[in-house]
Amino acid sequence: xxxxxxxxxxxxxxxxxxxxxxxxxxxxxxxxxxxxxxxxxxxxxxxxxxxxxxxxxxxxxxxxxxxxxxxxxxxxxxxxxxxxxxxxxxxxxxxxxxxxxxxxxxxxxxxxxxxxxxxxxxxxxxxxxxxxxxxxxxxxxxxxxxxxxxxxxxxxxxxxxxxxxxxxxxxxxxxxxxxxxxxxxxxxxxxxxxxxxxxxxxxxxxxxxxxxxxxxxxxxxxxxxxxxxxxxxxxxxxxxxxxxxxxxxxxxxxxxxxxxxxxxxxxxxxxxxxx
Length: 275
Fold this sequence. Notes:
Largest sheet: 8 strands, mixed
Shape: elongated
Helix content: 40-55%
Oligomer: single chain
Distance between the termini: 37 Å
CATH topology of the largest domain: Rossmann fold
Number of strands: 8
Strand order of the largest sheet: 3-2-1-4-5-6-7-8
Structural class: alpha/beta
CATH architecture of the largest domain: 3-Layer(aba) Sandwich
Radius of gyration: 22 Å
Number of domains: 2
CATH class of the largest domain: Alpha Beta
């Protein structure tokens, strides 16, 4: 049984690389990629993978999982091209395109419903991703396992029971890396204003953030408790946090995540239109 990728971009190659690192062989993968230059890169990185320029019956033959790894704006066209070829082997179709709802995808696939939808984030490119996942009822345990195995190869996986919650996943973890980078920007800028060189400021910011996240992962305590433990009364941390509270930093972050989730819902409405 093979896994077929429709689209051979960064996320597709990350998933292939992650699964190979877990014991799969390149021969177990088929990639449909229209651009010759990208096909050449995939061939060089994963010798033995089957490469096709367009979706066809041959590209789907023996496939248990089809991963739609195209841009959201290309999904309708990709699904229509895929539709004639999915019913024969009844593979599970996994979409990793932001905003595309399974009702719309199923319609473009001519009523096919063995569908899974996921929202991974960019740290998946280095095997540190977070993917929220939803499966339609037509997907059996084996189909769910195939989708889970693919996504777990690039990070953590969270299955959800309601597809609409993927908009919230987008707001929290899909867009979340940008929030982290934004905080790192600010921490680095503050260090530079306090007199550090760019390299030293970055080292301080990255090590502090990475260390704090690692400490939180290794602890059973709530983040609020960990925060309180390093906040001495009348000390420097208390002064810093008071400044953040005065600037409504926490409330602004919560509002930002909700705004991202709402935008994800809006994009889903727009992307699902056929006109």
